[in-house]
Amino acid sequence: MPVSLVVTGTPEKANIVTIAWVSLLTSAPPTLGISVGSRGFSGDEILKNKHFTVNIAGTDIMTEADYCGISSGKEVDKFAKTGLTKVPSLKIPSPIIKECPLNIECELVSSSLFGKTHHFVGKILQVHMDTDKLRDPQNPGSYMAEAMDPLIYMGGAREYRKLGEKIGDAYSIGERLR
Ligand SMILES: Cc1cc2nc3c(=O)[nH]c(=O)nc-3n(C[C@H](O)[C@H](O)[C@H](O)COP(=O)(O)O)c2cc1C
Q1: Ligand 1 geometric centre to CA of 56 (Å)
Q2: Nearest C-alpha to atom 7 of ligand 1 is from which residue?
């Protein structure tokens, strides 16, 4: 799964947590879901702040991303420790991370505790994409996967990987079996 860095807080005091369990949920209105363990710092912070950003990590910040997943905001300032750069969001107080090629600003619209895990639904208020990763600067859908170079986490094996090559066209290759 692609590795996301989820940030909640304010530009003065924000925490980063590494989250692999992220999914787009609906397109209209645009929402996404994240699963956040209740024992860490971030779950309660997201409940309190009611906003967060989802920042897709590239392979170039693998070490920083891993650190944010093995340390707690209860004990350290992860922005200070990693050197990752906070950039103010447009719609919410939680900042985005400059080093990440794709950033999503979310307002918390629903939460439930399932066992020891929070299921948070965020309404997507704003998306930022590095324009140098796009074929067409006006079209966010024209991103170049190789340029984004997302960090991929394989659960179970606990390995980080790079994205492989393109092998087919979605919504199309299956037509061969029609
Ligand atoms: C690659 C990776 C992926 C992770 N994915 C998740 C996840 O999806 N949900 C979760 O609750 N914790 C996940 N974690 C663990 C949290 O990042 C970790 O518990 C973190 O220390 C909590 O930080 P906090 O106390 O500052 O919130 C992941 C850790 C790593 C290294």
Answers
A1: 14
A2: 19
